[in-house]
C-alpha cells in the first residue's frame, strides 16, 4: 500500500521526524507483534506514534479502530464493546481512560529493525473501522476495506496532481477520514511528506508553508481564521500564495471566506465532498475551474446521482435531490449492524442523506443534510446553506447557522442563529437583507443571537444542540 523505502522525510511532528525507510522499520517490527490479532484500537493522539500504529496495523492485516482522545465515557464504552479490540496501541506515557482498562495496552515505540515483509492482504480485507459521530443513535462502526482506501487515495492524487515532491501541511485530528486517511495515508501512498502542526495556528501554518510545504488541508473553521487575518498579514498571504494547493473539507466553506482568501492571496481554495462511509466522492480539480460553493465533479471510478423524494433519478441540471453514490470507494458494512447496512443502500447505491444539485457542466453543489439542512416552509424546499451564505455577506454577522422549527401555518419556519460581529445588529435588518438577496420566502422568521455556535471536533456546527 505504501512504498516506504526512501530517505525522504515521511512524517514530521514538531522537531520529531521519520523517513520512509525509518517508518518501514518501526511499523514493520510492530506489525509482526500484531500479526494474527483480530482487531486493535489506536488511541489517536496527534503524534508520530499514532501514524506508526496505523501503518503497522495495515501491514499486519489487522483492522484498526482509531479512537478520539476526547471521546466521552458512554461512547467509548459502546465502541469497545462493539469492536472488541484485542489491544489498544498508544504513545508511551499517554494516560488512557478508565474505559480502556480492560483492553491490554501496547506502547508504540520508534524502535525497529529489518524484518521480513508480511503478505499483503486482499483488497476486500478490512483495513480501518471508523466510528460515525452518532447523530442519530449510537455511533456505527464503518468497516473500510483496503480497496476503498487505495482507490480513493489514487483518485484524489489524480485530481489534485499529488506527487512524491509534495509536502502536506495540516493540523487535523488523526481519528477521522480527513486527517488520517487523506492526511496521513495520502502522502505515504505518494511517497511524499506530512508536516503535522499539532495544533492549528496561522503562525505555525505560515512557517510550515514558508519552509517547504506545498499543500494545505483544512476545515472551514481554520480557513475562517485565515480569512479574518490574511488581509493584514503579509507573511501569511505570501505563504499561501506560494502553496500549490489549498484544500477544504468536512463542511461547506462559506463563499465570503473563499473570496477574502482569494483577494489577499490569489489562491482559490479547492473543495471536495466525502464522508466516512464513502471516503471521497467528488472534487474540484487542481487544474480546472476552482469555483466557490461547489465540490467539483465525481472522482475517477465513482458514480454519483441525484434522486427525488420518490426515488426517481434527476437527469436535468438544477434539480435538488438526495446524493447517492456507488464505486470502489464505498465501505463494506456497519460493524455488527446488518440492518443499518441494508437500510443504507438502494439498488446498490449508497444513500448519503446529503442533498445537492448539479450544474450544467457537471459540478455538484451540496445543499445540506436531508434531516437538518432542508427546511420545508410554505410549500418550498429551502436549503439552509444558501441563507447562511447570504447572512454572512452582512457586515454585522460573524458566524451563522440556520435551522427549521415546526410552524402551524408554514410547516417549518426558518430560524437564524447569529454570532454578531461587534455590536448586536437589528434583527429586522438581517431579515430584510436575506429577502433582498434571495427571495422573501427564504427570509428568517426569527433571529436568535448567540455568543458562539456549538461545533464538533471537525468544526461542523452541531445543529441539534442549537435546537435543544
TrEMBL record:
Give GO BP annotations, semicolon-separated: fatty acid metabolic process
The record's section on InterPro entries has: AMP-bd_C, AMP-bd_C_sf, AMP-binding_CS, AMP-dep_synth/lig_dom, ANL_N_sf
Q: Which CDD domains match?
A: MCS
Provide the AMP-binding enzyme C-terminal domain boundaries.
386-460
AMP-dependent synthetase/ligase domain: from which residue to which, for each copy? 6-335
Q: Source organism's superkingdom?
A: Bacteria
GO MF terms held by the record: medium-chain fatty acid-CoA ligase activity
Family to which the UniProt record says this protein belongs: Belongs to the ATP-dependent AMP-binding enzyme family.
Protein name stated in the entry: Acyl-CoA synthetase
Species assigned in the record: Lentzea aerocolonigenes
Amino acid at each position: 500500500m505504501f512504498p516506504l523505502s526512501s530517505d525522504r522525510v515521511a512524517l514530521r511532528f514538531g522537531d520529531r521526524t521519520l523517513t520512509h525507510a525509518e517508518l518501514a522499520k518501526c511499523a514493520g517490527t510492530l506489525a509482526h507483534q500484531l500479526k494474527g490479532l483480530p482487531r486493535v484500537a489506536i488511541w489517536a493522539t496527534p503524534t508520530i506514534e499514532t501514524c506508526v500504529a496505523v501503518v503497522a496495523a495495515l501491514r499486519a492485516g489487522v483492522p484498526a479502530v482509531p479512537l478520539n482522545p476526547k471521546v466521552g465515557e458512554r461512547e467509548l464504552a459502546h465502541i469497545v464493546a462493539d469492536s472488541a479490540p484485542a489491544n489498544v496501541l498508544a504513545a508511551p506515557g499517554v494516560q488512557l481512560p478508565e474505559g480502556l482498562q480492560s483492553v491490554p495496552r501496547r506502547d508504540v515505540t520508534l524502535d525497529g529493525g529489518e524484518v521480513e515483509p508480511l503478505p499483503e492482504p486482499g483488497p476486500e480485507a478490512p483495513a480501518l473501522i471508523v466510528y460515525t459521530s452518532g447523530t442519530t443513535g449510537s455511533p456505527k462502526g464503518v468497516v473500510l476495506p483496503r480497496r476503498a482506501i487505495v482507490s480513493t487515495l489514487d483518485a484524489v492524487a489524480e485530481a489534485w496532481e499529488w506527487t512524491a515532491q509534495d509536502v502536506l501541511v495540516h493540523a487535523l485530528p488523526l481519528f477521522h477520514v480527513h486527517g488520517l486517511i487523506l492526511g496521513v495515508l495520502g502522502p505515504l501512498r505518494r511517497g511524499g511528506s506530512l508536516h503535522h502542526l499539532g495544533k492549528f495556528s496561522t503562525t505555525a501554518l505560515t512557517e510550515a508553508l514558508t519552509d517547504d510545504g506545498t499543500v494545505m488541508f483544512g476545515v472551514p473553521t481554520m480557513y475562517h481564521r485565515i480569512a479574518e487575518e490574511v488581509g493584514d498579514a503579509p507573511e501569511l498571504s505570501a505563504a499561501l500564495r506560494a502553496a500549490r494547493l489549498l484544500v477544504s473539507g468536512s463542511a461547506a466553506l462559506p463563499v465570503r471566506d473563499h473570496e477574502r482568501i482569494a483577494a489577499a492571496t490569489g489562491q482559490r481554495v479547492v473543495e471536495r465532498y466525502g464522508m466516512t462511509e464513502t471516503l471521497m466522492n467528488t472534487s474540484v480539480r487542481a487544474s480546472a475551474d476552482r469555483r466557490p460553493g461547489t465540490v467539483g465533479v465525481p472522482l475517477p471510478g465513482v458514480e454519483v446521482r441525484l434522486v427525488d423524494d420518490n426515488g426517481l433519478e434527476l437527469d436535468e441540471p438544477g434539480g435538488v435531490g438526495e446524493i447517492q453514490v456507488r464505486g470502489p470507494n464505498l465501505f463494506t458494512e456497519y460493524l455488527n449492524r446488518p440492518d443499518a447496512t441494508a437500510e443504507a443502500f438502494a439498488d446498490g447505491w449508497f444513500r448519503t442523506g446529503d442533498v445537492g444539485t448539479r450544474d450544467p457542466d457537471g459540478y455538484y453543489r451540496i445543499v445540506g443534510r436531508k434531516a437538518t439542512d432542508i427546511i420545508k416552509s410554505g410549500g418550498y424546499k429551502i436549503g439552509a446553506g444558501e441563507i447562511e451564505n447570504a447572512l454572512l455577506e452582512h457586515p454585522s454577522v460573524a458566524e451563522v447557522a440556520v435551522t427549521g422549527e415546526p410552524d402551524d401555518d408554514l410547516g417549518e419556519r426558518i430560524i437564524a442563529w447569529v454570532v454578531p460581529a461587534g455590536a448586536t445588529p437589528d434583527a429586522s435588518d438581517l431579515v430584510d437583507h436575506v429577502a433582498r438577496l434571495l427571495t422573501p420566502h427564504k427570509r428568517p422568521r426569527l433571529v436568535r443571537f448567540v455568543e458562539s455556535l456549538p461545533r464538533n471536533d471537525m468544526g461542523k456546527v452541531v445543529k441539534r444542540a442549537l435546537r435543544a
